[in-house]
Request: fold
Amino acid sequence: MKTIDEMLHLALLTTEQYQQISAWIAQADSPEDILKMPAPLWQAVERASAVMGIDSDLLRPPSFDAEGITG
Reply:
C-alpha cells in the first residue's frame, strides 16, 4: 500500500483511482485476486509505476558494494 500512497502523493493517481485500487487490494484474499483488478485500474498503476521508474528499479542488478554488506 505504501507504493500507491506515494503514487497519490505525487499526483500520479486520482483520489478516485486511489480509493478504488485500495479497496480492491483490501478485499483481495490472495495475490491472484489482486491480479483480477479491472483493466482501467491496472493501467493507472502501470502508468504511475512507469513515471516512478519502479520497473527499472526491479530490473537493476543488486549493488554488492552497498553499505553493511560484508564479503
